[in-house]
Structures are given as structure tokens and as C-alpha cells.
């Protein structure tokens, strides 16, 4: 015990047995997870997470040069948590023409992007072929760029509109050029919570099954958890344990990203949203509970660059990327920039006492000498031209 106290000066004595497990590399239980959420001693929780983080990654903090492409914000799901989705007739509804997205891809490549992060609304009229054509067009034009495209929720929806199995939907995406899947749409797996915040989305079990199927056919993915709305600590722990169990089986998750709820402009705008303390605790508890996940991301867009910097001492080993053209959080009132430069990301990481390393989506170090030269600096994105009307018309019950 003296060793333990010397390494981690812990006020909350309930954390001692957990600290012993962490030092011995023993898996934490759901009860431990709950104690970590409930402890007043956030600094001790953070120190434990930092210990694991440094054991895995030393001082390295990864970042990437990426660009977000959101094909459409028209969405039939109408999730209460979301400020991004629109009905087709709403002001601000948009759908990109394929050419417009390929043009955005070209811009991303000129800015040095090694990844396009592609997610969008569940559009009532666009056929599955629109998304496959988007991917094929991007892959053909920019074969060196990793396409991290479509959440488990979108995959579930495409399977329905295309009348395909989940497996065949994923195989078609992979054949078109999708390289991996982002982690969105997981929210909180618990049915009570989903009923309130996203009642038309795939269930938590379905989300996990789709992720497992993706992993089985060789597509890796990320995972997320949306926190700071109506969920309890028990429901957070349950979510983390479900992810950990799936990772034991499929080994396909690359990174975990805790996502802070932004209430503005959503149907839950009366909720206060998480505080900075919640943000840091979420990062730390995820690092400690998800012992089979290599990477925990501090997504600066939603945490703010300042909290993201501190998160690098609370268990996070990744800052995400330059992003460019983030819409989902900004529609929900995020006050961060919509993009940042490589130099600024590196400055934030160095200032937090970490060593910045540019990575690709799957955490290989990027060798810039093997890539096309960077032609332009990241700049404020242009608004959508909004002149594209899908030709097909499908009737769907979501
Ligand atoms: O699925 C939606 C969340 C997600 C709100 O995989 C909201 O590398 C807060 O998944 N307040 C999209 N959150 C973002 C996402 C993501 C981000 C960065 C990296 C990766 C990755 C994935 O954002 C949605 C939903 O969970 N979201 N609305 C809101 N009002």
C-alpha cells in the first residue's frame, strides 16, 4: 500500500483496490467503473488513466489530416439529440451533388488529407447507389485517401432501402472503396435512453451486431458514446462493458471517442449538457474500462482545444484531426472553429507536454515523402450550393 500511495496520492479510499488492479493490469469490473464515475477524487481517477495511457503510448499524441464530408443533412430519423438533421422542406436542408463532393475531396487532398470522414442524414429519397457512387468516385480520384464512411446507423438504413442483408450492404460498401467505418450513432446503448434521445435509430444491440459484421468482413471501425444528457452512470458503465465485450470477440474497434452532448438547437435544449469535469472523467473512465481498445480520442471540436489538451493527461492519446467542415456539432451550438491547421494541432499537443505524431486512420505513422505535396492551407469551407434534387422517390417507414 505505501507503494500505491507514493505513486497515486488518493484521497478517496474506495479507489485503492481499483488502483491496485490498474497497477497489476487486471481488468476492472462494472462496479469499479461505477466507483470511478462516482468518486469525488477526479485527479486520482485521471492519474490512474494517465498511467495506463503512458504505459501504452508514452508521450505520443496522434493526430491526422482529415476532411469531413456530410453528403446530406436531410434525415428521416428526427433524433431529439440532433440539431443537424432536417426535413426536405426545411430551411437549410441540403444534399450535395456527387461532383460537389468530389470537388470537396480534391480540396481535402490539396490540404494534405489522408482521410475523408463521411457521414450524413438518412435521406428519404436517395438510393443506396448514390452513396456507392460517391465512394467509387472518391476512391478512383484519390486512391491514397482512406475513406472512413457511414456509421452503423446508416448501414442499417441502407440495408433496409436496398433490401439487402447487413453483410451484403457492408460488402457492397467495401467493394466500392470504403476502408473503415466511423464510430457515430452508438449514443448510449441502453433502450430507456435511446427511446428518449434517438427512438428511430437502430437499437444498441443492432449497432453492435452491425459493427461485428463489419469487423468480420475486414472493415475496422471506431466506437463512440454520447454523454451528458439523460443517461445515468450505470448506463454509461453498461455501454462501456458492452463495447469491451464486443471487442473481445471481434477485435475490430480502432479508437473510442467519448462525445459530449451539445444541447443547443436540439429537442433537448432544456438540458444543461456536460461540464469540463464530466469531459475529463469520461476520457479517464473510458481509458480505464476499455482495456482492449488501443486508442482514446479527445475530439477537440466538441471538447474545445483547451479541455482536449488537459484530456491528454487524463487518458487520451489522440486529438482527432484538422476536421475541416464539421457540421454536426456546429449546428448544435459548438463554438469551436470548424477546422484547424496542422501547425495549431501540433502546438496544442506540444504545449500539453506530449509529442505530436501524424497518423493515418489506422494509426500507421504518415510518411509525407510518399504522399502528394500539400498545395493549400486549410481554409473556411464554402456553403453547399444546394441545387441538387434527388431523382428517385422511395416511400419509407422509419
Ligand atoms: O453519431 C449528434 C453525435 C456523432 C449531437 O469515428 C451529437 O473517428 C453532441 O461520431 N451533441 C457524430 N453530439 C460524430 C462522430 C465522430 C466524431 C469524431 C470522430 C469520429 C470517428 C466519430 O455526433 C453522432 C452523434 O452521436 N451528435 N448530435 C449533439 N447535439
Describe the structure.
The chain is about 40% helix and about 10% strand. It has about 400 residues and is an alpha/beta fold. It has 2 domains: about 1-55, no CATH class; about 60-395, Alpha-Beta Barrel (TIM Barrel). Strands 5-6-7-8 form a 4-stranded parallel sheet. β2 (about 65-70), α5 and β3 (about 115-120) form a beta-alpha-beta unit. α7 packs across α10. The termini are far apart. The protein binds ligand V47.
CATH topology of the largest domain: TIM Barrel
- What's the tally of helices? 16
Structural class: alpha/beta
Would you count the extended β strands for me? 10
Portion in beta strands: 5-15%
CATH superfamily of the largest domain, by name, is Aldolase class I
Which stretches are poorly predicted, pLDDT < 50 over at least 5 residues?
A: 392-398
Mean of pLDDT? 93
**Widest beta sheet: strand line-up:** 5-6-7-8
Spell the H/E element sequence: HHHHEEHEHEHHEHHEHEHEHHEHHE
Q: What ligands does this structure carry?
A: ligand V47
> Which CATH class of the largest domain applies here?
Alpha Beta
Could you tell me how far the N terminus lies from the C terminus, measured between alpha carbons in angstroms?
56 Å
Number of domains in the coordinates? 2
CATH architecture type of the largest domain: Alpha-Beta Barrel
Q: Radius of gyration in whole Å, from Cα?
A: 21 Å
Overall helicity: 40-55%
Overall 3D shape: globular
Largest beta-sheet details: 4 strands, parallel
Amino acid at each position: 500500500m505505501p507503494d500505491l500511495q507514493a505513486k497515486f496520492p488518493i484521497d478517496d479510499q474506495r479507489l485503492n483496490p481499483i488502483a491496485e488492479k490498474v497497477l497489476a493490469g487486471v481488468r476492472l469490473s462494472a462496479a469499479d467503473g461505477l466507483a470511478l464515475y462516482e468518486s469525488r477524487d477526479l485527479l486520482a481517477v485521471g492519474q490512474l488513466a494517465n498511467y495506463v495511457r503512458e504505459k501504452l503510448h508514452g508521450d505520443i499524441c496522434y493526430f491526422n489530416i482529415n476532411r469531413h464530408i456530410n453528403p446530406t443533412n436531410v434525415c428521416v430519423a428526427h433524433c431529439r439529440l440532433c440539431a443537424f438533421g432536417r426535413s426536405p422542406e426545411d430551411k437549410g436542408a441540403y444534399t450535395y451533388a456527387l461532383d460537389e463532393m468530389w470537388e470537396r475531396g480534391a480540396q481535402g487532398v490539396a490540404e494534405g488529407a489522408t482521410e475523408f470522414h463521411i457521414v450524413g442524414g438518412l435521406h428519404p429519397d436517395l438510393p443506396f447507389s448514390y452513396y456507392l457512387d460517391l465512394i467509387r468516385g472518391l476512391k478512383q480520384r484519390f486512391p491514397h485517401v482512406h475513406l472512413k464512411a457511414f456509421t452503423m446507423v446508416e448501414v442499417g438504413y441502407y440495408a433496409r432501402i436496398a433490401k439487402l442483408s447487413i453483410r451484403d450492404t457492408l460488402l457492397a460498401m467495401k467493394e466500392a472503396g470504403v476502408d473503415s467505418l466511423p464510430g457515430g450513432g452508438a449514443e448510449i446503448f441502453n433502450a430507456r435512453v435511446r427511446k428518449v434521445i434517438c427512438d428511430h435509430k437502430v437499437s444498441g444491440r443492432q449497432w453492435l451486431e452491425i459493427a461485428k459484421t463489419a469487423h468480420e468482413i475486414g472493415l475496422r471501425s471506431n466506437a463512440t458514446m454520447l454523454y451528458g444528457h439523460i443517461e445515468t452512470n450505470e448506463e454509461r458503465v453498461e455501454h462501456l462493458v458492452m463495447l469491451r465485450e464486443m471487442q473481445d470477440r471481434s477485435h475490430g474497434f480502432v479508437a473510442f471517442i467519448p462525445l459530449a452532448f451539445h444541447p443547443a438547437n436540439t429537442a433537448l435544449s432544456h438540458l444543461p449538457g456536460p461540464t469540463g469535469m464530466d469531459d475529463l472523467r469520461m476520457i479517464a473512465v473510458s481509458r480505464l474500462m476499455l482495456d482492449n481498445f488501443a486508442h482514446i480520442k479527445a475530439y477537440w471540436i466538441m471538447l474545445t482545444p483547451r479541455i482536449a489538451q488537459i484530456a491528454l493527461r487524463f487518458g487520451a492519446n489522440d486529438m482527432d484531426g484538422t476536421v475541416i467542415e464539421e457540421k454536426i456539432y456546429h449546428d448544435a451550438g459548438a463554438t469551436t472553429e470548424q477546422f484547424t491547421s496542422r501547425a495549431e494541432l501540433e502546438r496544442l499537443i506540444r504545449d500539453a507536454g506530449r509529442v505530436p505524431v501524424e497518423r493515418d486512420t489506422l494509426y500507421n505513422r504518415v510518411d509525407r515523402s510518399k504522399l502528394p505535396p500539400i498545395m493549400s492551407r486549410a481554409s473556411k469551407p464554402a456553403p453547399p450550393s444546394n441545387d441538387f434534387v434527388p431523382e428517385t422517390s422511395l416511400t419509407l417507414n422509419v
